[in-house]
Amino acid sequence: MCAADKDRGLADVAGALPAALSGQDVDMRVLLPAYPQVWPHVEAGDTVFEENLFGGPVRVRPARAGDLQLLLLDAPHLYDRPGGPYLDESGTDWHDNPQRFAALGYLAARLAAEGAAGWHPQVVHCHDWQAGLAPIYLRDMGLSDHVKSVLTIHNVAFHGLFPRELRAPLRLPIWADHLGGAEFWGQLSMLKAGIVYADRVTTVSPTYAAELLTPEFGMGMEGILQTRAADLAGILNGIDLNAWNPQTDPAITPFTSHEDKAANRAALEAEFGLEPGEGPLAVVVSRLTGQKGLDILPDALGPFLERGGRLALLGAGDPALEVRWRSLAERHPGVGVHIGYDEAMSHRVIAGGDAILVPSRFEPCGLTQLYGLRYGTIPVVARTGGLADTVIDSNDAALKAGVATGVQFSPVTVDAVSRALIRLCDLHADKNIWTQLVRNAMRHPVGWDSSAATYATLYQGLV
Length: 463
Ligand code: ADP
Known about the structure:
Layout (H helix, E strand, L loop, with lengths): L7 H15 L7 E4 L13 E4 L7 E8 L2 E7 L1 H4 L17 H18 L8 E5 L6 H7 L7 E6 L7 E3 L19 E2 L2 E3 H8 L2 E4 L2 H6 L3 H4 L3 H6 L4 E3 L27 H10 L9 E8 L8 H4 L1 H5 L3 E8 L1 H13 L3 E5 L3 H10 L2 E4 L9 H7 L3 E5 L2 H6 L5 H6 L5 E3 L4 H16 L1 H13 L5 H14 L1
Parallel strand pairs: 1-4, 5-6, 6-10, 10-11, 12-13, 12-15, 13-14, 15-16, 16-17
Antiparallel strand pairs: 2-3, 3-4, 7-9, 8-9
Helix pairs in contact: 3-4, 9-13
The structure holds adenosine-5'-diphosphate.
The site of adenosine-5'-diphosphate has 18 residues, from helix 1, strand 12, strand 13 and helix 13.
């Protein structure tokens, strides 16, 4: 597995999937850059792979994080620096991101060729643009008959573009530089490279797999993805059932059923400065971006707040949205906002809420609605991507069949969100229905078992 933690969602998957696959007889290592944050996990021993790769030496060091077996690319000239994995401290892309992530793909291929301490992978599983060049290097090294590749698209919005002039310096073959290859509107794209040259392409939900083939969601990659449609599958992400277990979660007052949530709700109201009330307490845990629909949610809240609903939001991101949400909280006693990134608080927020709102314009899979299901916090979601695949709308048929777990709405407009929130109030006001919803949600399988088995079958089919 060849991974880079684009964001928390991808990092969660890169961490959880190998553990889930170990139960499927898949022996996986996670290859990732040795960012300063991962050094504490490093074990003794290393292999010098290259004396000079894009400007400096590269070693591969084995490491462990819990049960996870890592192979860290120790290349100080590329990865040992302050700031984030992709952006410097001022929020600008690192100027050498092409070298940094070409190195990841290149070394994935070299490791596939040479192995690491007796471990010889048969499949290189690449995640997103950061690892998208690995399939090209595999082919160019003449390995693609023996070592197969899979690309998983977690978010097609990020293309990993770089200037064509870097092709030769990055050791990329000329045969990949054309319209049907890695070339993308006059530049080269690491994501497109992966889409074209990987043996299989997956994404993180069946609905997003279908959406990716359309201009509305494909972000310019729909054409090339259509050529791979036969090799494209959507496999849902799961969540870590130990980290997200309402009975053992150290961040909250443990609970087993809807009735037991009261202590967490009261704590959340106090933490976010909200008066207790009759209406549902809705929560949001999210990056604050347009993708997540959090620019329109403020305008959709009026009728919900009038009916006694309250909202607690934990998020960070777009500075203009941060200002907007802060000022909303100042004006409305029913809205409490914490701007920042805080994992323990995210557990308290999801445990204490009655409902979790995810009004995303697109959502490849989404994790917070899965945490919501697990914690009996009813998801109210846009009918898109993985949200459509994981939440069963409380329509009449689903309520009669006793299978509903949440509320879906479409499209992502102020009107539709506003109506979904009114439906939420109605469902919450009916004690029998609400109890049934929470029970269904908490029983809904959200772990990795079934998806890990699907990945294992995919790998086996390739080798
Ligand atoms: P994306 O990867 O697009 O941001 P996901 O729903 O797939 O969306 O994953 C987001 C992850 O980041 C979840 O684990 C969520 O709990 C976490 N998260 C997002 N914002 C915050 C925050 N402000 N504080 C703590 N955790 C957050």
